[in-house]
Specification:
Strand order of the largest sheet of chain A: 3-2-1-4-5-6
Oligomer: homodimer
Shape of chain A: elongated
Helix content of chain A: 40-55%
Distance between the termini of chain A: 54 Å
Largest sheet of chain A: 6 strands, parallel
Number of strands of chain A: 6
Structural class of chain A: alpha/beta
Number of domains of chain A: 2
Radius of gyration of chain A: 21 Å
Order of helices and strands of chain A: HHHHEHHEEHEHHHHHEHEHHH
Chain lengths: 373, 373
Amino acid sequence: MTTHTTPTELSDDDATVIARTVAAIQPHDLEAGAQAAARQAQLTKPPGSIGRLEAVAERIAAMTGQPRPHLDRRLVIVAAGDHGVAARGVSAYPSEVTAQMVANFLEGGAAINVLASHAGARVRVVDAGVAGETPQHPDLLRLRIAPGTADFTRAPAMSTVDAERALAAGIALFTAERADEGVDIVACGEMGISNSTAAAAIIAAVTGHTARAVTGRGTGIDDARFEAKVAAIEEALALHQPQQVDGVQLLAAIGGFEIGVLAGVYLAAAAARVPAVLDGLISTSAALVATRIAPGAGEYLIAGHRSVEPGHAAALAHLQLEPLLDLGLRLGEGTGAALAMTLCVAACRLLDEMATFEDAGVTDAAGVVPPEA
Amino acid sequence: MTTHTTPTELSDDDATVIARTVAAIQPHDLEAGAQAAARQAQLTKPPGSIGRLEAVAERIAAMTGQPRPHLDRRLVIVAAGDHGVAARGVSAYPSEVTAQMVANFLEGGAAINVLASHAGARVRVVDAGVAGETPQHPDLLRLRIAPGTADFTRAPAMSTVDAERALAAGIALFTAERADEGVDIVACGEMGISNSTAAAAIIAAVTGHTARAVTGRGTGIDDARFEAKVAAIEEALALHQPQQVDGVQLLAAIGGFEIGVLAGVYLAAAAARVPAVLDGLISTSAALVATRIAPGAGEYLIAGHRSVEPGHAAALAHLQLEPLLDLGLRLGEGTGAALAMTLCVAACRLLDEMATFEDAGVTDAAGVVPPEA
């Protein structure tokens, strides 16, 4: 990642970078989608029999503009950050775990390392704003915007400048990865003690659900911590009134540095016509930030899985996305997104590699016997 | 597959082969399952956060007797057969498509070829009883017990001798594959015009549901064919009264040659402590035959996906299995099983490859900071 633009170089015109990226987002290529659907109908299977994988492949065709898309260059981005609201006792784990897990990602011992390998994807880790020290490592982008956000029950989580910096850094990261090794599909995950509190706050603000309705048990909290978490979100919503603000202000008020980086990745992926696979609660809350900045970015998102977190379903419904997997995951890191990435690859391989009725000499549903049969 | 026992050699003592296989089926190795669960609790993730994949890995550990199972040698078996009940106009496609699709499997152009490649699995195809001619091919086991079953609305689908022959052939196939190249996990699919009619009849007989309740649209039939399909199943149930007969008689009365071969594979896989992944309606109906012969075989089955066929849910409920995927598939061939196989591989890789809290120096949920942290 030696070619990455450093945060210092970015800071002059982050707002310009964001605006340029948003302006570059185009709608789906409907012609490519229609070509994919036409091919789908000629493949040696009853029409519609591959179920949702047919729609996935056709949607990726429309995203990429390729009637037979290839998803060979696969990237998993894991953004990490700490949260001032952790001081409110909303988590089962102390904030020191965020830096420890970043080290684990870099050593290859975390669940996302295994599942990225399983999906044939490379992993890039971002220290967007971890409180503890993170190591120098070739696979780690050390932004370190701040040592965690401020406690958003008392003040904005971050300044507007830092929110733009996080977004622009996500854009720069994706752009550099695409230039360096290529990206045909990206899966987005995160790590950050207490970040399910920030994510639930964003989801409540955007969807209009109450804090309690979108708050879950995160990594496994007891009743007392759950009540503290609901109260913290209610206080933040009352303090910042983030329901109607723009995406940058939403991120600044109640977001996180890792959430900002992922939102930037979604914007850049959409601008580059690259499908981005959502993971769970936090990665999907970042998609709410991105689509508040640029509604058209939603066309380039794929819902990987349905988390057990109650706010996740609300966020996916707002994005009008139906998840591919429902396995009771609640880990984050991009684990559900990496698993779903393999389904996207399978869907596109089916579209590209299957024989047509005519190729294979198979009689179709209309009873048309191919010439060579 | 040159080492395979030929059908002629098998025919003397098929009943003995089946009985010996059934007798070899042992219950789960609970100690191995407990060791897997104990390791699961030490991995760098909140307890339970990998959701159903944790249970899948622990169950495969108990099946295989290996606390950290490896699923490196993967086999997909696709068994094909034709059905006399096709004469009743129950299908959207003519029977000639069965042989055409067998040729397509051997050429690598079908959906299952793509998805087996995606899963890193080899494919073996069985002509269990196809009406049309099938080619000589190294990947095709040509049993050809008969050119399709009899119309089971008028007579048993096959003789008891042929039912035993199909079951023993499935056992021999699995046993030879295991001896030749090894099998750590097997996914089972099928092809056979009108075989969703036979499968629905088996499901109605075993679960006690009405024919109408378990009958679906198969590859996509209209209302008239749907009514013909329900009527054919009702007639077969009235003629053969298969509700209480044993598994071999059930197969003989209303089954299919490909269903018998798959049932034999399930028995052999269970006897060898190898997990077998079910596909959709027909492959799961074969599991009902197998578990009627040997209830303990059910412990070695994994439900791959939930088909759109209404009878599939009834069959899975009877087997007390919860499917891993729900993608609206209704193709058969083993497609859903091959996709689910990749989830089983992922689950076992997570169990085996992830770092423990102690290995990685990560603080656990109890706040225990590891010595090196």
